[in-house]
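Archive transcription. Copying these from loose printouts into the bound notebook so they stop getting lost. Printout 1 of 2:
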Amino acid sequence: MSPRSASLLLALAIAGTGLCHAADGDPDPTFGTDAEFPGYGFYLNPMVQGELDAASAVAADPTGRLYYFGNLRDGEGGSRAAIWRLDADGWFDYDFGEAGLRTLVPPCADGWLSHATLDFQGRPLLAFSGCGDFEIYRLTPEGAPDTSLLGSGRLTIAFDMGGSNNDRPMRIASTLANGIVVAGSVANADTGDLGIAHFTADGGAAPGFGNAGRVTLPFTWRVTRVGGVHPMPDGRI
């Protein structure tokens, strides 16, 4: 098994620990077992070996199903965002997409899925980098575009602070009201600021948050990574 495969397996195993019935710290023998790894709490990486595929996030819905988000090479020099949905026991959910897999074309030619999560209705939220602006998709739990978001399931958030105007979302989260919070790097004339966008569930700017739902925080260095974003119950981020 390649190191990349092992890391993907570990990500899935860690995501499933909240559903374990084994002792703390032990692999859950009921999760994702197969003929190659019986009883070890994980299963073989489903991505094709030798391709430059990458995992972005794992999230669980209220029923315990797992959504596994990543980028999948299409075999023709391009890539697609990929979502696997797994049952709570780690097996592919054949009611989702094709045999548990749903793929999506990024919103631009150079786009890739940088992060994803589920809102409190179990709807996938996907953040794409590489398109110049923060590009967000929201899907139904079954993987179709959620047209309750601006009629298309797509939200574009432009900061346009100058420089290259190449803004990159890095983390996405949902509020208790199913609003959308995105944090990432925002280009300006000199460097890259931290940018945070807060929009409502229907795609409008969150009232009272920054300038039209956008806030930038300057740093003396370029923001190249955001480790996480967490909306608090009282509305703070």
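Printout 2 of 2:
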Amino acid sequence: KESWHLAGCRFPGHTEMFAQRTKSKRVVMAFESPKLRVALATVHVPLIDVRNILTIGAVFDPIDLGHQFCKQLGIAKPRIAVAGLNPHASENGRFGDEESRLITPAIEAAKSHGIDAYGPFPGDTVFNAALAGRYDLVVAMYHDQGLIPVKLLAFDNAVNVTLGLP
């Protein structure tokens, strides 16, 4: 990313560049690997700013586009797990309100569109449930929440896929 910056590229990553160049309204960074599939609600954003840019739509898009992606992979009825933003998925508001204010409404919207979505789950346990086969895709709220498990489990065989491109 620093090299891009030094070369005069104004995009923080290729996801944002592809979105702009293809005039795509909804794009999501996702990862496919033999062990785990992950889609991100936010991409190259400083952690301190995630709370300020997270919206119901920002959570709904990776659920929706992730569902379509799983179907393209041949999963007839994808099960989508959605991580919370806060520790313990906020413990019913004890550690923040993003789960009740943003994430749960996005999950409910997805369900109303026929998507089998669940959560919000604590970020420190949801990936184990996916590894156990309970979910086909995990939606993470921010870059490192989703990328640490992917890189830990599938560093050499995960593929970055930009969902939502034409």
